[in-house]
Amino acid sequence: MTPSRARATPFSTRDRLTAYLLAAPAGALLVGVALFPILFAAWLSLHRLILILRERRFIGLDNYAYLLHDQRFWTALGNTAYFAVFSVTAELGLGLAIASLLASAAPGQRLLRAAILVPWAIPAAVSGKIWAWLFNPDYGLFTRVLPGSINWLGTPGYAMPAAILVDVWKTVPFVALLIFAALRNIPEDLYRAASLDGASSWRIFRSITLPLLKPTLAVVLVLRTLDAFRVFDAIYVLTAGGPANTTETLAIYTYKTLMDAGDFGYGSTLAIATFLCVLVISIAYLRVLGSEGRA
Amino acid sequence: MIPRRRFLAGLGAFALTATGCQRRRQATEGRPPGPIRLVFQHQPFLGDPAPLRRLFTDFERENEGIVIAAELLPSAPGAVHQYYLTALEGGSQDFDVFIIDVIWVAEFARAGWIAELTSAFPPDVLRRDFLPGAASAVIVGDSTFAMPWYVDVGVFYRRSDRVPQAPRTYGEVVAFAREAMPRQASMRGFLWQALQSESLVCNVYEAIWGHGGTTMLGDRVLLDTPEARGALEYLRALVACGVSPLSVTSMAEEESRRVFQAGDAVFMRNWPYAWAEAESPGSPIRGRVGLSALPTVDGAIGRGALGGFQLALNAHTPAWKVDAAHRFIDHLTSPQANLAIALAYGRNPPRAAVYRDPQLLTGAPAIAGLLPLALLAEPRPVTAYYPMFNGTLAAEFSAAVTGVRSPAEALRRAQAEIDHLMREAP
Fold first, then answer.
1. Is the pLDDT score of A10 beyond 60?
2. Are B268 and B140 spatial neighbours (Cβ–Cβ below 8 Å)?
3. Which of B2, B34, B170, B393 has a Cα-to-Cα distance from B287 of 20 to 30 A?
């Protein structure tokens, strides 16, 4: 025992060194592309830094004090939350339904599986332009097909649901495919046993399918919520935040402050605020889903 | 489009400055052997690119040893502004002469991104030869920072076959439109640009001036006024009462022009370029379009917003290129170039004398006839802060026009935001 332990110690030190060395590139990459930019943005957010004025001055937490009373920020936060809640709910619901359809043995489903990927494969800027034309109040398809004439992208109250529709259309395939993969992993035996016991299909869905899908649904939920909270391209291409800022999300407000106004101090403050929101959501999800996993 | 590589280079350069590596490339390296290569970035004109290209080749023929490399920018001014913000702040030397919007001159000059041109183009010569609006747009203090390339002014279009007499008051716009609309099922009334964007800001300012309002009081940008309330109430009413279709709230210039050109609208507010399009061969409304001054509340001649593009020189262009760049700018802003651009693309000459040129009078009488309107063109608030608050203006004007907020409330919010920005500024 003793000699072997003595031999093991220098060996494991070297092992540990090797492990650190092997992990070092990944660690350096993370520090370089994630940690450093975040810390730097936090540092910038403590400054008044406006490009055109050639001004850079440390002002402590003044930007954050302004943020708390910035109506436009709270509106953007509300818009973002509205978008995230409705788009993620719809995507999960429709994704589950479509995945179930894909899993059932229907004729031509190979083709269906390939076809469903098309919206996901189109870049967001391109699909945004396509939908902008569909919504066009003078020549668009929706104006022709639907009764009444609604200017979807130009009317407050309609523009955000339109943007949600576009995002759902684009993202449901992704969600459906993830769920579909999980569905295929559920052993057939369980279903056979359940039907022998005379369980209804609803009962089977609730007691077998849903619990076994839970880990996948959790992953999808986390991914989609975080994505939705940082939404930019889908909405920017459609409305650029208009009308009357009713579709301005946190990411769009941040972008405009940084890139249109050239205000890097307050823009960084907005970016950090968005980051904190996303962090809180992630931690909340990890708490809830993590504890369920252990139970 | 901006070449992707250059756009990325701009972003990269921006990242370098943002991370504190203030890397200023000095123009110390000497002139390389061979011809001087001037990079000129501009937006494409609608129509045949050949006349513009001919201007470049003429210059190359007259100036041996200089090669012009023209690069196209996107037609979206917002995207171009962001591109220059990052590229110029990063000290990019990828381009030399480039176009800037009237509303960027004060900003870019203050930021030190564009070279002073006073020695080559003295302000008093500019004031003598160019339209007053065009000259004042490029002179900051006593220095010239850009040269006017073409001017734009908001003008009023009508279908002359439906409405023989141009309306002069806002009341007549509504009355004439209501009279002409029922005669054709697809006919809309008055098109303008109410998409939340800079175009909307121009439209609202024109209505403010049309109600007798002003833009600035000393150094303060003035918005919360009875005239501005009147302007927003009038624009909101146009949408609410159906004289302007609901679709105007998602229209920029091209969206409105397409509908007007398809023959589906009585009136349109737009820039002069729409005239050349409307009168082009194959246009369904060719020969049936009238062009006039914007109407006002009391029938006075309406002032259009001053728009248009200027030629500026990158502050980081190496010294050995500057003389060639001056000559190129001079060539592109010469009376001949003014004339060529007006004839080929319907863009208004910034030089006053060109409006009396016989070639323009015969080749594009409509453009020549715009001289009184171009002389009256009014700039949006002239301040280096303008690009910092025009997003707020667009959002609040959009709120008023779409009925989210009352005009009074929208103006109060916009004024508070502008005062906050400009008071804090040193």
1. no
2. no
3. B170
What is the Cα A134 distance to its own chain's centre? 25
Q: Are residues B203 and B54 in the same domain?
A: no
Q: What is the dihedral of CA B45, B50, B52, B58, to 10 degrees?
A: 180
B159 and B80 within one domain = no
Confidence of residue B43 (pLDDT cuts 50, 70, 90): very high
Would the CB atoms of A53 and B110 count as touching at under 8 Å?
Answer: yes
Regarding whether B311 and B203 lie in a shared domain, the answer is no
State whether residue B78 sits within 8 Å of chain A by CB. Answer: yes
Would residue A44 count as lying in a domain?
Answer: no
Q: Is residue A137 part of a domain?
A: yes
A227 and chain B in contact, CB less than 8 A? no
Closest C-alpha among B261, B361, B265, B273 to residue B309: B273
B213 plus B246 within the same structural domain: yes
Mean pLDDT of chain B: 90
Flag whether A264 is in a domain. Answer: no
Considering only residues B22 and B364, tell me which one the structure prediction assigns the higher pLDDT.
B364
Tell me whether A51 touches chain B (CB under 8 Å): yes
> Is the reported ipTM for this assembly greater than 0.90?
no
Q: Which two tokens stand for residue B363?
A: 């080749």
How many Å lie between the alpha carbon of B326 and the closest alpha carbon of chain A? 25
Q: Tell me if B145 sits within 8 A of B384, measured CB to CB.
A: no
B285 and B350 assigned to the same domain: no
Q: Give chain B's end-to-end CA distance (angstroms, integer).
A: 37
pLDDT digit string, tens, across residues B273-320? 899 889 889 999 999 999 999 999 999 999 999 999 999 999 999 999
**Which of B151, B150, B152, B149 lies closest to B330, judged by CA?**
B149
pLDDT in tens, A157-186: 899 999 999 999 999 999 999 999 999 888
Question: A170 lies in which domain range?
Answer: 83-248
Q: How far is B359 from chain A (nearest CA, A)?
A: 39
Domain CATH number, residue B107: 3.40.190.10
pLDDT > 90: percent of chain B: 76
A117 Cβ under 8 Å from any chain B Cβ = no
Look up the domain containing B419 and give its range. 155-304+385-424
A241 shares contact with chain B (CB less than 8 Å): yes
Residues of B in contact with A254 (CB under 8 A): none
Q: Any CB–CB contact under 8 A between B391 and chain A?
A: yes
Residues B297 and B415 in one domain: yes
Nearest residue of A to residue B395, measured between CA atoms: A244
CATH of the domain at A179: 1.10.3720.10
Residues B107 and B216 in one domain: no
pLDDT value, residue A289: 77
Q: Are strands B36-42 and B97-101 parallel, antiparallel or unpaired?
A: parallel
Q: Please count the structural domains in chain B.
A: 2
- pLDDT of residue B10 exceeding 60: no
For residue A11, what pLDDT is reported? Answer: 62
What is the pLDDT, as a whole number, of residue A3?
Answer: 47
Kindly tell me if the per-residue pLDDT of B16 is higher than 80: no
Query: How many domains are contained in chain A?
Result: 1
Query: Would you mind telling me the total number of residues written for chain A in this entry?
Result: 295
